[in-house]
Design a protein that fits this description.
Distance between the termini: 95 Å
Number of strands: 8
Largest sheet: 4 strands, mixed
Radius of gyration: 34 Å
Structural class: alpha+beta
Helix content: 40-55%
C-alpha cells in the first residue's frame, strides 16, 4: 500500500481567554460579580478602586469635625486622661499574663473607654451586632429554663421541643418519646402527656399542637371566658372543621343552628387565630434584591441607567504600571507585565458587561413602554429573538444578560426575564401577552363577588368577550401559577 498525502480544510472556533472571561462576567449576578471583583482585587496588585473626590472631601470635613469635638470635650473635662495616654507604650507590657485574654487586660474599644458615644466608627453595624438569630427551638428552651420541673420532666420536654417544626407543630408522638427515654426512669405515657400539656401553654399560643384542630383550640383556650362567640368557635373547630375548610357554610349553619350574621361573627373570631404560630419566631434574615438597572420617568421621558452601587470602579495602579516601563527581563518585571495585562482585560470585560446590560435594558424599556405607563395589562409579547435582532447579538447572549439581573422601576423591582412572555392570538388578529392575561385574570378575581366566586370557565368566557380566546385549562394553569385557589376555596361569607 502506497502512502498518500491528503489535505483537508476546516473551520474551528476558538474562544480566547479574554472572551471567556467576558462571557463569564456577563452571566454573573450582582452578588457574584461583587465577589468576583473582590477576588480580583485581592489577587492582582495592579487593580485598585477609584477614589472619589467627594468622599475625600467628606472625610476631610468629618476629620475636622472630629477634631473640633475633641477640642471641646477636652475643654469641658480637663481631668479626663487623653486617649493617647491610656494607650501609651509605657502601660503596655511585653506579654500578656498566662491564661488571660486580651479583653481581660485592655479595653475593647477606644470609644467605650473614652465614654464618647458620638464617635462611632463607620464600620460599626448596629443592626448586625444587635440582630436576633433566635429560632423557635431557642425561644421554647428559654421558656423551659424558666419553668420549674424535675429532671425527668425536663428531659421529656427537651425531646418534645426537638420534635417541633418551624410552624410550631409537634411531629414526635408520645409513644416515640417513651421509647426513647432511659428504661431505668420508667417513664409512662401519662407523664409525657402531662409535660406536653404544660408545654402547650408556652408562647406563642398554639405551639406543640399535633394538628390544626388542636392548634386553634389551644389558642381559643387562652382567650378570656367572656369573649363573645367563644363557645360557638370551639364547637365549629372541634366538630365541624372539615365543613369550615370546604367553605360549606349552608351545611355549617344547619349543623350549628346559627344564622348567617352570627356565623359571620364566629368566623371573624376564628380568622384572628394563627394556623402557623411558630412562623412568627424565626432567625432568618430578610434578603434584599439589588437592582442592576434603574428606570426613571424624567419629564415624560423614560431613562435607563446602571445602578452605580452594584460594582466599584476599577483602575490600573499607576505606580506599579510605571515599574513595567523598565523593560528588563527580570522575573519581577514579567510578573508585573502579566498582571497588568490581566488587569486591563478585567476592566475591559467589566465595561463590556455594563454596556451590554445597558443596551439590552434600554431595548426592553422601548418595547414595553406601555407597561411602564399603564401597567401589567398593557404588557406586549416579547421573546429573546426580538431583543437579539434589535441589539445585534445572539439569543444566548441575551439569555445570559437577562438571567438574575433586576430592574428597578416605579412599578417595582422585576427580573429582566419578567418582560419576556409568550402570546395568545386575539379576535382582531393581534397578539396578547401571557403576562397581560395573568393580570386580567387576577383583576377579575379581585373584583368578583366572594359569595359567588368566578369559575375558570366563567373567566375564560369573560376573556373571550374581550377578544382573547383562551381555554378553561389555560385559565386554570395561569391561576395556579399565581397561587390563587379555585372558586370553591375562594367562597367567603365575610
Amino acid at each position: 500500500m502506497k502512502a498518500s498525502l491528503q489535505l483537508k480544510m476546516g473551520q474551528q472556533l476558538t474562544m480566547t481567554p479574554q472572551l471567556q472571561q467576558a462571557i463569564r462576567l456577563l452571566q454573573l449576578s450582582t452578588l457574584d460579580l461583587q465577589q468576583e471583583i473582590q477576588e480580583a482585587l485581592d489577587a492582582n496588585p495592579m487593580l485598585e478602586m477609584e477614589e472619589h473626590d467627594g468622599d475625600e472631601a467628606s472625610d476631610a470635613s468629618s476629620s475636622d469635625n472630629s477634631e473640633t469635638k475633641t477640642e471641646v470635650s477636652s475643654k469641658d473635662d480637663a481631668d479626663t486622661p487623653e486617649l493617647d495616654e491610656q494607650w501609651s507604650q509605657e502601660q503596655l507590657p511585653d506579654d500578656l499574663p498566662v491564661d488571660s485574654q486580651w479583653d481581660d487586660t485592655y479595653q475593647a474599644t477606644a470609644s467605650v473607654a473614652s465614654g464618647n458615644s458620638g464617635a462611632i466608627d463607620d464600620d460599626f453595624d448596629y443592626d448586625a451586632r444587635h440582630a436576633t438569630t433566635e429560632n423557635l427551638q431557642d425561644h421554647l428552651e428559654w421558656q423551659l429554663n424558666l419553668t420549674p420541673m424535675s429532671d425527668a420532666d425536663r428531659e421529656i420536654a427537651t425531646m418534645l421541643i426537638d420534635g417541633v417544626d418551624d410552624d410550631g407543630y409537634l411531629h414526635t408522638t408520645v409513644e416515640d418519646v417513651v421509647e426513647s427515654m432511659d428504661p431505668e426512669l420508667e417513664i409512662e405515657e401519662d407523664e409525657v402527656i402531662a409535660v406536653l400539656h404544660r408545654l402547650q401553654q408556652f408562647d406563642p399560643a398554639g405551639v406543640f399542637a399535633r394538628d390544626l384542630r388542636e392548634c386553634l383550640l389551644l389558642q381559643l383556650q387562652q382567650l378570656p371566658d367572656e369573649t363573645q362567640w367563644l363557645k360557638e368557635a370551639r364547637l365549629i373547630i372541634s366538630d365541624y372543621i372539615e365543613l369550615l375548610g370546604s367553605r360549606d357554610y349552608q351545611t355549617l349553619m344547619r349543623k350549628t343552628r346559627l344564622r348567617e350574621d352570627d356565623l359571620k361573627s364566629v368566623l371573624c373570631l376564628i380568622k384572628e387565630l394563627n394556623p402557623k404560630p411558630g412562623a412568627g419566631v424565626s432567625g432568618e434574615q430578610a434578603e434584599y434584591v439589588v437592582p442592576d438597572v434603574i428606570v426613571r420617568n424624567v419629564r415624560d421621558e423614560w431613562r435607563v441607567e446602571l445602578n452605580p452601587d452594584i460594582a466599584p470602579k476599577l483602575r490600573v495602579n499607576a505606580d506599579y504600571a510605571a515599574l513595567v516601563r523598565r523593560s528588563d527581563n527580570s522575573t519581577d518585571n514579567a510578573f508585573l507585565r502579566d498582571h497588568l495585562q490581566e488587569a486591563r482585560w478585567f476592566i475591559k470585560s467589566l465595561q463590556s458587561r455594563n454596556e451590554t446590560l445597558l443596551k439590552v435594558a434600554t431595548k426592553i424599556v422601548e418595547y414595553q413602554i406601555e407597561f411602564f405607563e399603564e401597567g401589567e395589562e398593557a404588557m406586549k409579547p416579547l421573546v429573546l429573538h426580538d431583543i437579539a435582532e434589535a441589539v445585534g447579538m445572539h439569543e444566548s447572549t441575551i439569555s445570559r444578560v437577562t438571567t438574575q439581573k433586576y430592574m428597578h422601576t416605579p412599578r417595582g423591582i422585576f427580573e429582566l426575564k419578567y418582560f419576556f412572555s409568550s402570546h395568545v392570538s386575539t379576535d382582531g388578529g393581534g397578539e396578547c401577552s401571557s403576562t397581560a392575561i395573568r393580570a386580567m385574570i387576577k383583576k377579575l378575581i379581585s373584583e368578583e363577588n366572594t359569595r359567588k366566586p368566578l369559575s375558570d370557565n366563567k373567566i375564560a368566557t369573560m376573556l373571550g368577550e374581550r377578544g382573547i380566546q383562551v381555554a378553561r385549562r389555560t385559565v386554570a394553569k395561569y391561576r395556579e401559577a399565581m397561587m390563587i385557589p379555585p372558586s370553591n376555596e375562594r367562597k367567603q361569607l365575610i
